[in-house]
Amino acid sequence: MTTKKPPIPIPLLMLIGIMAISFSSIFIKWSDAPASVQGMYRLLFTSLLMLPFARPHSGAVHKLSTTDWVLLIFSGIMLALHFLLWMGSLSYTSVASSTMIMALEPVFIMLGAFVLYKERTAASAMLGVAIAIGGVCFIGWGDIGVSADNLKGDLLSVGGTAAVAVHMLISQKLVAQMPSYLYSLIVFSVAAVVFALYNLVMGIPFFDYPLTEWGIFLLLAIVPTVFGHLLFNWMMQYLSATTVSMSILAEPVVASILAYLLLSENLSNLQWAGGLLVMIGMAVYLWAERKKVDSVPPALENAS
């Protein structure tokens, strides 16, 4: 994990990113288009918005090795799979249940980071993870797996969580050696192409959608993708994949509140209590990670 300090305070960046990605499930619920179409245009529009600002990073493209390109393509495939499965899960289960399962992402990433990068997590940080995971379990307890449709949605969300964990682990490796902006642009473009091929093979229409749907596609690109995923990819220059994913544990809390306000999805007292546990768990984890960074000797810190 790098110890560079970002030009903007990390807590502010995390707050912006969490708020942005929390609107994703709301926009998806508002749309009647297939999940694969939502995902395709979400990533296509994001790539088009990013393209005019990519020129300063164009020189880095020539430095990419064959291995880098393979990893970039695989990361894009995993991102597309994440969106396809998770966005699809919202057709079968509630926002609270789906985002609760997605919040298990740090568990997948911690295991992967240990296996691939030998990245160890302090006991105090693990305690924070346990508290936060317990909190998100409370959030989704009221409606998880009680019917065949809910169970299908839950399984789709688990698959989407595993896919995004792989995507984040690849991000940690590649962003350390190439501009995060270029990484995001390439991966988003690859994922958009994957969606286009999927829709073509499945015979899903590309254009036959009302104007309101196109507005939702654009909102999905700007809000949760640019100010969410793109921002979190950029933060990977300064934080580990585990730390970034841990911040996303706040998404079930914010998304559930938004679903209550905008979709009339009710929350129980147990779910509100879970939200409090998530915040406590995040605070414990981030405190433990900050202690680890602060303990790095100055000479080693400058070497990064």
Automatic annotation (TrEMBL):
<feature type="transmembrane region" description="Helical">
    <location>
        <begin position="40"/>
        <end position="57"/>
    </location>
</feature>
<feature type="domain" description="EamA">
    <location>
        <begin position="12"/>
        <end position="140"/>
    </location>
</feature>
<feature type="transmembrane region" description="Helical">
    <location>
        <begin position="214"/>
        <end position="232"/>
    </location>
</feature>
<keyword id="KW-0472">Membrane</keyword>
<feature type="transmembrane region" description="Helical">
    <location>
        <begin position="95"/>
        <end position="117"/>
    </location>
</feature>
<feature type="transmembrane region" description="Helical">
    <location>
        <begin position="182"/>
        <end position="202"/>
    </location>
</feature>
<feature type="domain" description="EamA">
    <location>
        <begin position="152"/>
        <end position="285"/>
    </location>
</feature>
<feature type="transmembrane region" description="Helical">
    <location>
        <begin position="244"/>
        <end position="263"/>
    </location>
</feature>
<dbReference type="InterPro" id="IPR000620">
    <property type="entry name" value="EamA_dom"/>
</dbReference>
<feature type="transmembrane region" description="Helical">
    <location>
        <begin position="12"/>
        <end position="28"/>
    </location>
</feature>
<feature type="transmembrane region" description="Helical">
    <location>
        <begin position="153"/>
        <end position="170"/>
    </location>
</feature>
<protein>
    <submittedName>
        <fullName>DMT family transporter</fullName>
    </submittedName>
</protein>
<comment type="similarity">
    <text>Belongs to the EamA transporter family.</text>
</comment>
<dbReference type="Pfam" id="PF00892">
    <property type="entry name" value="EamA"/>
</dbReference>
<dbReference type="InterPro" id="IPR037185">
    <property type="entry name" value="EmrE-like"/>
</dbReference>
<feature type="transmembrane region" description="Helical">
    <location>
        <begin position="269"/>
        <end position="288"/>
    </location>
</feature>
<dbReference type="GO" id="GO:0016020">
    <property type="term" value="C:membrane"/>
</dbReference>
<feature type="transmembrane region" description="Helical">
    <location>
        <begin position="69"/>
        <end position="89"/>
    </location>
</feature>
<keyword id="KW-0812">Transmembrane</keyword>
<keyword id="KW-1133">Transmembrane helix</keyword>
<feature type="transmembrane region" description="Helical">
    <location>
        <begin position="124"/>
        <end position="141"/>
    </location>
</feature>
